Amino acid sequence: MAEYVSESVQLTNEIQLHIPEEGISALSNELLDSFENSNMEVTDKKVEQSESCAKVVAAHYNNIEEKGVEDRKDSRIFHMRNLNNWIKSRLIAKVLRRIANEKKQRGFNVLDLGCGKGGDLLKFQKGPVNHVVCADIAEVSVDQCKKRYNEHQHKFSAEFITADCSKVNLKSKFDNPDLKLDLVSCQFAFHYSFESLPQAEQMLANISSNLQPGGYFIGTTTDAFDIIRRLDRETNPGNRKFGNEVFSVEFPESTSLEKVPLFGAKYNFHLEGAVDCPEFLVHFPTFQKLALRYGLKLIEKTRFEDFVKEEPDFEFKNLLVRMKVYEAYPPYPGKELVSKIPSDYVHAQDYLGSLPNSKDLKIGTLTKAEWEAASLYLLFIFQKEDNQRNVDTKLPREADGQQTV
Ligand SMILES: C[S@@+](CC[C@H](N)C(=O)[O-])C[C@H]1O[C@@H](n2cnc3c(N)ncnc32)[C@H](O)[C@@H]1O
Fold it and tell me: What are the binding positions for S-adenosyl-L-methionine in this chain (predicted)?
């Protein structure tokens, strides 16, 4: 078993990545079928609803307090946040490397779509990035992102745009409307556009029409199939909610779970101290099909838990430890476990119990509750096709002379 040295004490890198079975039942085929077969019609009603959701989403993110490093350490989801950051770092670095190899040129242009408070700015330093466009619907977040950029030395220039990227033509807001992007990164934000088909299309048009041929579109979003599965409606037919002490997913009565719509499948997402607002299921096969219509071809789609398990690079495995993705179990003397609930560590105990010589050994783990939340997500990589397909990358509403939604 490979071992890492962390702070003078050895931590194994054998981590319990499996999510305990409780609450995650077998596939509900009927439900998944209804999800697959639902039609793509978009009614006016959905568009009306979407206006109110955008405001709720923007207000929610605008009102989140900026937390200092110390406060963040006390968060119940401290390690899960670190895991998310590690995954984003890894994904961004991997694709920047790929672009560098393929293009043999320096000076990439990047769009951080749904940039939030700029938590990913430093991650773009890892490649030869020349310029970053940061765009988000929440004005306060964009201001904080700009402040964060100005407070640190960056190798790249940056511009900041406040806009609902699922409803406006972003190009018209760029400092240089002819700017061509090498990478669009949309982290934990794409699902907001699946409120309606026109919004998803506008988002994809903003991505594709500004990307160079061969450029990449990467991101992270929830796994809709997993969400539907975890509702376990075969066993509990009326169920609309699941979760634990750190997160919950709840579908309002207005979202049909008998025939889940492809767009506008709204659920309320709560993540302790981080998110509390409506989100929308992203039916991945539809996302993939729609993206292809915008010249974006799927290269990779990986669930978070598999991405961590499959990491081949020692440097990045080591980063897992340095970024404090895992909590040491049992804890170091004088340290408290982040969860007071014993069942949150059963998997770690079981694993240690299965080892022949586990006395004095510490393993790195996440609480069961955090794993259950982290494993809701998947990451994706699309590439803009070199040759223009027979598709129109014009903005969807412009194409037929109408205004955007
Ligand atoms: C969970 S946060 C992620 C922020 C950042 N990407 C990160 O990974 O730290 C989701 C972000 O998406 C933004 N967002 C939601 N809907 C949006 C839209 N229609 N257009 C642009 N940004 C949007 C929110 O304001 C919020 O900042």
Answer: 88, 114, 136, 164, 187, 192
